[in-house]
Specification:
With 637 residues, the chain is of the alpha/beta class. The protein is built from 25 helices and 23 strands. It starts with 9 loop residues before the first strand and ends with a strand.
Length: 637
């Protein structure tokens, strides 16, 4: 029996793979995966000899092929996914996924396309190389063609595909040893993974794309913090960014910066043990992060805290001075106005959240920096529509107004300009590159176009598809659910879940539990964090419990299944919310349609890999379905 090894089931040059007995290859794969099902054993028995024959054909035709490599069951480092076969041929890479069937499905195509996207984005040896996806239904014969950017071929035509590829992509092959190094692959972590890494290591893994996009902001914030400590001054930093651009990652990295301990001022004979804190009014985000950090053995409540609890503690008469010097306020554009604060705290607090936090900062000895993370178009609650102008007003009302400086990106300076406080404009405080969606460009622009009254433009969707982000739509929810279960069947770490608007009135009778009582009962930590085999069937992967925009904002999934309700419908040439559930009588709503549009903006941008939309077969949603199709959502059948 072969000895188990890390990272792959088999690796060798083409000649060794050709000459190895199928039994030897199979034993190596079994040693790597260990608890292998009989079905998997049969699949290897059926597929290994044909692969060896195709490799032999390549060796006979191509004099350079003895330097090519075959890697089977390559486990992507830091993940549990395994492409079936990696071929390092010519100057590039073929990613081959084998399916024991005659015909392929959309889920099969999207699975192998995702492998290729991630290798292109995060594998050092694939940078600048051509990486092609190949789907092999093992019962098919001959080359079937290019389907949605994926080459579909029977096993018998693999040699011809390799030959064509090496002619079009000549060059020295990738070194197999370098390819297999753990450090060669550094995927972008999910928000939960990032929190765990920061708690464990004090920093995030090095990811070139993420560092290039966010480091200028980190450097600017670091400079301002050092200036504040040196000059004994107070600063408000507003960091803006498109959805998925890494604002939260910047905030998390900032509060974990090692230098903060050196800058902290002693209080009662000792320095604060936690000189910075990440604060969020997003209760689901707080619950999920704390749930995961407790599971990882970390102190979740010191790492991230809820805004409401923080305000309650430090707004009381004779309350203690906040121990931190740096306060990071997540989604600062959604800060509650005075009316909402009074309701949230039963009249105990009568000023806005920005007023509260500037007052807290004024009490902190010598210096303080408040960082507001600003998203766009994500105000979904009542009391969140006052915008970032509240923060300028709060600084202007500060008892220590002369000590304050506001720093903001150019896009916000007009809204916060002041004759009473110095405002500095810094372009580095705007993050305009989407990271959450891997290599997908301009998803936020696609969603913005869809949710405004623009003429349909499918080119957005075509670009997203080319970048590995998948937009799918169906009128049969069972088809949508099966697609996701098939798509992630081999990726148990992936989280996909059911989403719906909280203001819809039609979905509950169609079996979608988006009503208040059902969604209130959801435990956010298990929904986002548990796998489907955990007790209680609380995992999102069961596609049973539904999350609304209030439970989804600020969090992410590998893919989302959005049940589109009648609360936002396309009616002739504009969006309408006339069927939406109403608000409470005492709610002060300035623009209910805007809140509906913002809710769907949130719901449409939760998936890192894909957004699957189910449009119920209701007459009032026919035009909505047609608009989604016109914008490039590919229909699942």
């Amino acid at each position: 029996m072969a000895e188990p090894q890390a990272g792959f089931g088999w690796e060798s040059a083409f000649p060794e793979f050709r000459d190895a007995s199928p039994k030897r290859v199979r034993e190596s794969l079994t040693a790597f995966l260990q608890d292998v099902s009989p079905e998997q054993q049969r699949a290897w028995t059926d597929s290994i000899p044909p692969l060896q024959r195709e490799v032999e054909e390549v060796l006979l035709r191509d004099g350079l092929a003895e330097h090519y490599s075959a890697i089977l069951e390559y486990e992507l480092p830091m993940e549990s996914r395994r492409p079936d076969v990696i071929l390092l041929v010519g100057g590039g890479v073929l990613v081959v996924e084998l399916k024991g069937k005659l015909e392929h499905t959309q889920a099969d195509l999207d699975q192998v396309a995702a492998y290729v996207r991630d290798l292109r984005c995060y594998h050092r040896e694939c940078a600048g190389r051509t990486v092609l996806p190949v789907l092999v239904p093992t019962r098919a014969r001959g080359y079937k063609g290019l389907v949605g950017g994926v080459h579909v071929s029977g096993p018998d035509a693999l040699d011809e595909l390799v030959q064509t590829f090496t002619q079009e992509v000549p060059g020295p092959p990738i070194d197999r040893v370098r390819f297999l190094e753990d450090s060669a692959y550094r995927p972008l972590p999910t928000l939960v993974q990032a929190a765990r890494e920061l708690m464990r290591d004090g920093d995030l893994r090095t990811i070139h794309r993420a560092r290039a996009a966010t480091d200028p902001a980190i450097e600017e914030i670091t400079r301002i913090i050092h200036t504040a400590a040196r000059t004994k001054s107070r600063h408000l930093i507003l960091l803006s960014g498109v959805p998925g651009a890494g604002k939260t990652l910047v905030g998390l990295r900032t509060v974990h910066a090692d230098f903060l301990s050196d800058l902290a001022i002693e209080r009662e004979g000792e320095k604060p043990t936690v000189p910075a804190v990440f604060l969020s009014g997003n209760a689901p985000l707080v619950e999920v992060l704390q749930y995961e950090l407790r599971a990882a053995g970390g102190g979740g409540s010191t790492f991230v805290r809820g805004v409401k609890d923080y305000v309650k503690r430090y707004s009381r008469p004779r309350s203690p001075i906040p121990p931190e010097h740096v306060l990071v306020f997540d989604e600062a554009q959604r800060a509650f106005d005075a009316d909402k604060m009074a309701k949230a705290h039963n009249g105990a607090v009568t000023t806005s959240e920005p007023d509260q936090f500037i007052e807290f900062a004024d009490r902190i000895p010598e210096w303080c920096v408040v960082i507001g993370l600003i998203g766009s178009g994500q105000e979904i609650n009542t009391g969140e529509e006052a915008g970032v102008g509240q923060w300028r007003s709060a600084v202007e009302r500060s008892a220590k107004q002369g000590e304050w400086t506001i720093h903001a990106p150019p896009g916000l300076t007009a809204e916060i300009s002041s004759t009473k406080v110095t405002v500095e404009s810094r372009s580095t405080l705007n993050l305009d590159t989407e990271l959450r969606f891997h290599s997908a460009r301009d998803l936020h622009k696609f969603v913005e176009a869809l949710l405004t009254e623009t003429v349909p433009d499918q080119s957005f969707a075509d670009r997203l598809e080319g970048d590995g982000f998948h937009l799918r739509v169906t009128r049969d929810i069972s088809v949508a659910k099966q697609y996701l279960k098939d798509r992630y069947a081999e990726n148990p770490l992936a989280r996909f879940g059911l989403l719906a608007s909280a203001r819809d009135k039609s979905l509950i009778r169609l079996g979608i539990p988006n009503d208040f009582q059902s969604t209130k009962a959801i435990k956010y930590g298990p929904w986002y964090g548990d796998d489907e085999f955990a007790e209680g069937r609380r995992s999102c992967r069961h596609l049973e419990k539904c999350m609304t925009e209030f439970g989804a904002q600020g969090l992410e999934l590998a893919a989302s299944l959005l049940a589109w309700g009648t609360d936002l419908i396309w009616d002739r040439d504009r969006w309408s919310n006339r069927h939406a559930r109403g608000y409470a009588r005492d709610a002060v709503i300035h623009d209910p349609l805007r809140l509906r549009v913002n809710a769907y903006r949130v719901l449409l941008t939760r998936g890192r890999d894909a957004t699957v939309v189910w449009v119920p077969d209701l007459p009032e949603l026919n035009e909505t379905f047609a608009r989604l199709r016109a914008f490039g959502f590919k229909q699942l059948t």
